[in-house]
Amino acid sequence: MLWKGDLVQKSDVSVSPDDRGYVFGDGIYEVFRVYNGRFFEKAAHLDRLERTAHGTKLKLPWTMPELSELLDRLLEKEGTQESILYMQITRGEAPRIHQFPKDVEPVLLAYCKDYPRPVAVMENGITAVTLEDIRWLRCDLKTLNLLPNTMAKQEALDRGADDVIWHRGGTVTECSASNVMMVKDGVIRTHPANHLILHGVTRAFVLKLARQLELPALEKPFTLDELANADELFLTGTTVEVTPIVAVDGRPVGSGKPGTVTRQLQRAFAEAIALV
Ligand code: PDD
């Protein structure tokens, strides 16, 4: 593991009870994807980390090239051909006060985990339930405060589905750990990248693939009614790539099978990562 700048064994990591990540969820994170033993869209993840650090006023003691180099060292030591690299940075260790403490050193933790592509799930698709999005108004910041996300995921499972599709007053936002796109009459639609969703690296990559394939794609919000009439629905995310959603709230999406646009994007994605 990478712990405070050093490569160590897990047993050498000891988290302070004063760590603000532990006490307040006061920290930020990224999940990087590794294909063929190499990072996928690393610069985009680092850009988002930098934006999140700025948005949460967390002063990073490393430049992005320095962090990038630390991640390379970790990948070399722990990475496999297909893995994810989890990294979090908390604001630091200080007695519990709400305001940001002065002169604290952010605490970095990162590790790799073997993570084969979820081929069966991408082939068959998942089911979802709709749920009101009760999160705050800075969902574009990738912070450690994921209780709404974990609660939503658990609710989906409790209701017999695989994930939630969140909406705010009927406008679809995203899912518990991925973005969501719909297809109607050949046109892809997804929520614009504003403060109400995480600006997914995979979302941006898939929109780029859509442009290359000359598939029309709009970054325009859609409603639950439009979702109910969609021909296709799919998730995008670091851990799910492009995964079809085949049923929502117990009703089939389109034919109830992954659609042709989804399949086209999956194929294009697979071709693109083979070149990573
Ligand atoms: N989650 N939306 C939310 C709420 C997310 O948590 C994620 C990613 C995404 C997709 O972003 P990207 O394509 O950059 O992975 C969208 C990560 C994987 C996680 O928390 O495990």
From TrEMBL:
Gene3D superfamilies assigned: 3.30.470.10, D-amino Acid Aminotransferase, subunit A, domain 2
Reaction(s) the record says it catalyses: D-alanine + 2-oxoglutarate = D-glutamate + pyruvate
InterPro entries named among the record's database cross-references: Aminotrans_IV (IPR001544), Aminotransferase-like (IPR036038), BCAT-like_C (IPR043132), BCAT-like_N (IPR043131), Class-IV_PLP-Dep_Aminotrnsfr (IPR050571), D_amino_transT (IPR005784)
Pfam families: Aminotran_4
Needed cofactors: pyridoxal 5'-phosphate
SUPFAM superfamilies: D-aminoacid aminotransferase-like PLP-dependent enzymes
Protein origin, superkingdom: Bacteria
EC number assigned by the record: 2.6.1.21
Keyword terms: Aminotransferase, Pyridoxal phosphate, Transferase
Alphabetized GO MF terms: transaminase activity
Subunit structure as annotated in this protein's UniProt entry: Homodimer.
Protein family according to the UniProt entry: Belongs to the class-IV pyridoxal-phosphate-dependent aminotransferase family.
Name the UniProt record assigns to this protein: D-alanine aminotransferase
